[in-house]
Amino acid sequence: MSIAEDLYTAGYVTYPRTDNTVYPEDLDERELLERFADHPRFGDDADAVLAAAEDGIDPTSGDEETTDHPPIHPTGEFPEGLSDDEWEVYDLIVRRFLATCAEAATWEHLRVVAAANGCSLKANGKRLLEEGYHAVYPYRSTSESHVPAVEEGEELGVSDPRLEAKQTQPPRRRGQSRLIETMEDLGLGTKSTRHNTLQKLYDREYIEDDPPRPTRLAMGVVEAAEQFADLIVSEEMTAQLEADMTAIANGEAALEDVTDESREILRRVFEELHDSREDVGEHLRESLKADKVLGPCPECGDDLLVRRSRWGSYFVGCDGYPDCEYTLPLPNRGEPLVLDDVCEDHGLREVKMLAGRNTFTHGCPRCRAEEADEADDQVIGPCPECGEERGGELAVKTLRSGSRLVGCTRYPDCEYSLPLPRNGDIEVTDDVCEDHGLPELVVHDGDDPWELGCPICNYAEYRERRAARRIRDLDGVGDRTAEKLAAVGIEDLEDLQAAEADDVAAEVQGVSADRVREWQSQAEA
Fold it and tell me: DSSP state, 67?
């Protein structure tokens, strides 16, 4: 929605926050189509829609008709210099407009019902006869399922009969758009607030992933509210308040009456919560803990939890601390999410690291640590910082956190290191870099090997390629993280470079000090 609003303020599309599904009478659809006929990206499709509209253009409309704003559609002003995300949203809006002006699609459906040994066997088929709007709108599926044409009474052969026993499966989780539609059906929120409500649930860590799923914290909050103040989680109450506010706007209800009723509802809710505050607090503390439990500690049997250090980095620690000091490292990139998948060897839940586009599954922390302990360092050449004076050597290393790097064998006295990809088998070739005297590396991960080359040259090229010009250019910084950084005074790269990494990590949830240092290093490239 924020991207659509940016396109609106730039004059490329109409106002996006509207429920209206009926174009106004003063909109000249043909004139707008003719403007797009000259566009290099949409011209052919606009021409096709115009050519098919011999009897005039009669755009489709929905059930919702309001007078505040027309349905979102392009203005006819062609944008330039859009980002990939902005182009995706703009393309969707344009093609949606083209689809509403295009001819309807024609499908042929066939349902075959056959009797076999007292059982009724059914098959449904469909095929697309006329593409219609599908020719200009690729966002709706046109998949077909063919069944053979048969005549009533015809006998069919039975081959490969199977008897399968299945259990009822839970319904699939609803995606973000479906949740917003459900909120609309229940009368919760408005067009302007529903997507913000969903974003707040993400920001406050009540939901995660996509499709969204509730965290244990969210379930704990709902359970506590249902047990101690059930009115606060009643969708009927929220829908009634929304209806009351609409009635005030329409002159059908008095402001004083609605506010008096709302105050009375809130008074009852706060009284119930106040009387049960200790029980609610204990319930929430247990829910927060349960969301971070991985499994049993191998040393004392207590729970292993995802913890955060004073410097902002994450690790796995025992709930029995300080009596038990067992720990396991976690990657320094991203925010850990404890999954439902359990390691068969150690009985620990696996961990995923949320890092924007670079999100990855870390797996079982004990497995990663044991693999690193068993792996031998592979020396590939002299260290460029201390090799001549102190005999330091560079070696391919696997860390207990799961990361891999080329680092000096004299660590921690020499901290020279170069990053390596987390996944894939690393081959040290016989080809040697003329500039640095190091062997070239090849990463085998999938069908096509990745010729990494000299690790020093590769890292220099990587830094040049990833050189940042603004905060959002940094690896793993999306809109949400950029907003969090801006909230603590980091709005540009100069602010970032002047900041203390530990201080930023302490103030910004989900960002470690090591991550901040990575960004500072990238900003210097």
Answer: S
Distance spanning both ends of the chain, measured CA to CA: 33
Residue 399 three-state SS:
coil
Q: Which residues of 136-161 are buried (b: 16+ CB within 10 A; e: fewer)?
A: bbeeeeeeeeeeeeeeeeeeeeeeee
Share the mean pLDDT of the chain: 85
So what's the pLDDT on residue 413? 92
| Rounded Cα distance, 114 and 376, in Å | 64
Residue type, 121: L
pLDDT per residue over 133-158, tens digit each? Answer: 999 998 888 888 988 888 888 888 88
Give me the mean pLDDT over the 335-361 stretch.
87
Contact 9, 24 (CB under 8 A): no
Tens-place pLDDT, residues 46-61: 898 888 887 788 888 8
For the segment 222-232, what is each residue's pLDDT rounded down to a tens digit?
A: 887 777 777 66
**How crowded is residue 438: how many other Cβ atoms within 10 Å of its Cβ?**
21
416 as an active site residue: the answer is: no
Q: In this structure, are strands 425-432 and 378-382 parallel, antiparallel, or unpaired?
A: unpaired
Asked if residue 191 has pLDDT above 80, the reply is no
Of 466 and 479, more confident: 479
Please answer whether residues 116 and 95 qualify as being in contact, where contact means their C-beta atoms are separated by less than 8 angstroms: no
CB < 8 Å & 24+ apart, contacts of 42-47: 42/94, 42/95, 42/98, 45/95, 45/98, 45/135, 45/136, 46/98
**CA–CA distance, 20 with 23 (Å, rounded to integer):** 8
Q: List the alpha helices (DSSP H) in 140-215.
A: 176-186, 194-203
Q: How far apart are CA 440 and CA 396, in angstroms?
A: 12
Bridge partners (DSSP) of residue 407 are 395, 417
pLDDT at 294 over 90: yes
Q: What CA–CA distance (Å, rounded) separates 365 from 387?
A: 33
Q: State pTM to two decimals.
A: 0.51
Helix (H) or strand (E) holding 190: none
Choosing from 15, 321, 411, 462, which is the catalytic residue? 15
In the predicted structure, residue 365 carries a pLDDT above the cut 90: yes
**CB atoms closer than 10 angstroms to residue 198:** 19
For every residue of 322-351, DSSP letters joined together read TT---EEE--SSSEEEEEEEE-TTT-PEEE
Range 463-486 average pLDDT: 75
